[in-house]
Amino acid sequence: MKVLMKGNEALAExxxxxxAYLFAGYPMxxxxxxxxxxSVRMPELGRIFRQTESETASIFTVYGARQAGMRTFTSxxxxxxxxxxxxxxxxxxKSIPGVFANVQRCGPGLGFALEGxxxxxxDTRGGGNGDYRVLILAPNSVQEMMDFAYExxxxxxxxxxxxxxxxxxxxxxxxxxVELPEFKETKRVVDGMDGVPKKILLDHDDPEFxxxxxxxxxxMAEEEQRWESYLTEDAETIFTAYGIPxxxxxxxxxxLRAEGERxxxxxxxxxxxxxxKGFAQLPDTVxxxxxxxxxxxxxxxxxxxxxxxxxxxxxxAEVYSLCSGPVAAKVGEIMQKYYQIKEDPQKEAISIIxxxxxxxxxxxx
Length: 365
What we know:
This protein is α/β, with parallel strands linked by helices. Helices cover 38% and strands 20% of the residues.
């Protein structure tokens, strides 16, 4: 059965149907509908909802409840996710599964209540202290908000590692039809066992602690890469994006194909691990790659550039970036950028200067 749902509500319902037993969170636009929805839905099902005094308290509530055997979940955006990084780092260190959603907003500091993709570098690099990685799924539709939340608990338990759903304000607020999955059993599971564990998988006193972390990260990177290819078989130019920009990029591909241009799209679904295998499957005809992001300066473009150097037949491909600020680039803007880089290649392909920036004026400071 299909129903119309807002993205944030679909994510919340997906987590409920995926087995979430406890949610702890703190309100912040543009993700507050997740909390509002779950404040009714969790008690309705005999599960636990907690509004904590801060995002820091939220992540440590999730941390502790998971050690007691509950499937746990939290969500926030922007600065709220920054406040959670200590807890996320601790969960990775102790191999504690958990799920959290980041409905991104734009801007540094407190940011603005708008959509954007400015948290990519923080989240994919591990935003807290030490060496760790979080599995990150990036939806581009309301259906994927539900689907990714639904599967995230089992994915977290598979790797004994936190999983993040990296969304953005526009997906959280948009309304689309979704297919509702069946309810999964709400289990008390820790480290793959029923009940409270007698032993944490990783111990800081273990002399091979660092090596075990490294091996797990390597294994996750090998097995969990996800992407979607669209009309790439003979492409000379590849657009690459995640989230909302991947939707407008697909529209640009269709229009440019109608004009006889050999373009295609590689949509990034796993922001980490980055889908290097997807790029490796691109044809030898690729001459240039254009990364399209809703942020002020290139972020995912760094991963694209590194990946192009890893994949032998892409090493000579030019890598460009289109940064549209907090609002996703329109189809026409992507087409305009495409013709620009095709007809007038730049030596400095990736620039930190925003796509539409005016000359910098020191007096404005």
